[in-house]
Amino acid sequence: MGLCSCISSLVTLVMLAVTGYLLWHFLGKPQTVDEAIASGGEILSNLGDVLDNFSFDDFDFSDMFGDLDPNGGGGGGDYTGGSNKTLTWDLGQATENGLTLTLKNNLDENWQDEYRQAVANWMDSDPGIVQLESIRVEDYLKDKCNPQDGLMMVCNGNEGDNGMLGFNNLVFDQKGVIFSSVAVMNEYYLANADWDERLYTMCHELGHGLGLDHTDEDPYNKDQGNCMDYTDNPSANILPGAVNFARLRSIYGEVSRRLGSSLRRMVSSVNTEESRDVPHNLEQAYDDAMADLKRHVSEEYHAAKRGEEAIDEDRRERNLSGWRRLHQNKWAGHFVRELVDGYKIQTSVLYPRE
After folding, report:
1. For residue 106, which of 152, 68, 46 has the smallest C-alpha distance?
2. pTM score, two decimals?
3. CB 213 within 8 A of CB 244
């Protein structure tokens, strides 16, 4: 009887020690009692905020089970289409306030209002999830709209009648971590478009740049009311929706989920303190890949406009030149291609609505 009592007491002490260590760790490893009390008060305050706003309708159970959606949606909302892999920015860039990302504003004066509005809309969630820091390019004509490590380039230009209303390129590594995003608005179709069309396109391409897929890829069903929806009615879909923010929250965390964000950073396999060894020929591979894709999209777009039958498969494969089609319909296409040294590019294209 005495031996059992000793063993029970020993187990209790071990459990108390482990609990104390975990508590000390999540309080921020305080060095004094005062620091511990202050940290504990802050956590209790945040917990109160969470409980005040808690609803089972908003709770994202997908965080418990990982990426269960075969379409890459991760269970975070009604994501029904897109590629088979969720691409995300480095989780080391996910702070306690969600994802902090730098955007390089390489747009002319005619796009500044739409850009500012779309950026503000993507940051307009409660609690905060996305923090976008914008850098204005002084001379947009001289600065190439090419991928740059750790940021999103946002550009406009007259790409011509190539069947690409707007597009976003995600360059990513073997782990699915985004190296760079490039969002482009094609002036050929958008220069004289109305405000809603331009804002929808800007919001849509920025959303892809954050790592989001489409919420829905059926343009004939009811509008979903968010800019990641395929639609023939941009006016009803010019803003990010709750489902978009829920998906972002499931990826990057948010301000009122301090504990979840801390755990997410602890298990991240990416070491952000180490600079990436970027292949010297990555930019050239990117340029070559985009030239091939633009040629392919343009040829198919104009064949469709002329009412011709679809391009035969052999010719299509030659035009794709290593690109693989993930999904395509009359509204948009998704493509992926190997670049160099394990880097890939995934491109999402909005086609003109005619």
Report:
1. 152
2. 0.71
3. no
Whether the upstream peptide bond of residue 30 has omega within 30° of 0, thus cis, is no
Q: What is the sign of the dihedral through the CA atoms of 62, 65, 67 and 69? A: negative
Q: What type of residue is 78?
A: D
DSSP letter string over 167-219? EEEEEE-TTSBEEEEEEEEEHHHHTT--HHHHHHHHHHHHHHHTT---SB--T
Q: In terms of Cα–Cα distance, which of 197, 203, 213, 160 is closest to 183?
A: 203
| CA distance linking residue 89 with residue 1, whole number of Å | 58
Average pLDDT over residues 145-160: 94
Taking alpha carbons only, the member of 213, 218, 229, 249 closest to residue 73 is 213
Tell me how far CA of residue 217 lies from CA of 224, 250, 301, 337, in angstroms.
10, 21, 19, 22
Q: How far is 251 from 129, CA to CA, in rounded Å?
A: 10
Structure tokens at 354: 């005619």
pLDDT score at 77: 33
Structure tokens belonging to residue 305: 């406009």
Given a cut of 60, is residue 141 above it in pLDDT?
A: yes
164-221 tens-digit pLDDT: 999 999 999 999 999 999 999 999 999 999 999 999 999 999 999 999 998 877 767 7
CB burial of 204-242 (b: ≥16 within 10 Å; e: otherwise) equals bbbbbbbbbbbbbbebeeebbbbbbbbbeebebbbbbbe
pLDDT at 353: 80
